[in-house]
Design goal:
200 residues; 2 strands; 4% strand; two-stranded antiparallel ribbon; single chain
Length: 200
């Protein structure tokens, strides 16, 4: 397959997964109101960011999550101020997941289902584990130094964010493990998932 065709296909897939990130976060979330008009939420938006990184690679997956969930934040009056933080963190989730899955484990070069399943889970845990740590920490400093919230309020929000981000990570890892390993063989058979050796 020509490189230009591969790029067009991957951009289209990135757009679809960005839309899924947006829909999953916007319409499939349980919002938990917090002091000061803020909120945190239980959602599965990160699952589609990780799924995109497993299917398309770190950059495309990160961009799908960053764009999809960044737009979701912009469209929500409660989350709009956090959109820049969301964009950066979701990009990082994709990059870390892609690094583990494609650069370290090279799952697209393997036909061993157990190997692919194991490394897809490890990559998901790496990307989402980063988010469990980075989201509350980045949120704390972002809210205190960029948005000017009092330190005590920023601490309370960070603690709640840690709890919800951990729950989201567990749910998303389970969801991605099932989705990716179900969708991957179908996409390979249809030619929609390009293996590494075909990209050169």
């Amino acid at each position: 397959m020509k490189k230009s065709n591969v790029t067009i296909i991957k951009l289209a897939q990135t757009a679809i997964l960005a839309a899924l990130c947006y829909v999953a976060f916007t319409f499939l979330q349980i919002k938990i109101p917090m002091p000061g008009g803020d909120a945190t939420s239980i959602h599965i938006g990160n699952a589609f960011c990780v799924l995109a990184a497993l299917l398309l690679g770190g950059w495309y997956g990160g961009i799908a999550g960053a764009v999809g969930m960044g737009i979701a934040d912009i469209m929500d009056p409660i989350y709009i101020t956090g959109a820049p933080k969301t964009f950066v963190l979701k990009l990082c989730i994709g990059l870390i997941t892609g690094l583990v899955a494609h650069k370290i484990a090279r799952i697209n070069e393997s036909n061993n289902k157990k190997y692919v399943f194991k490394w897809s889970v490890i990559a998901s845990v790496a990307g989402l584990g980063f988010n469990v740590v980075a989201d509350p920490v980045a949120g704390y400093f972002y809210k205190m130094y960029i948005l000017g919230q009092p330190q005590k309020m920023a601490e309370v929000l960070a603690k709640w964010s840690t709890a919800t981000t951990f729950v989201n990570a567990v749910i998303s890892t389970i969801l991605v493990a099932g989705l990716y390993n179900a969708v991957r063989p179908i996409m390979l058979r249809s030619g929609m998932l390009v293996k590494e050796e075909e990209r050169s």
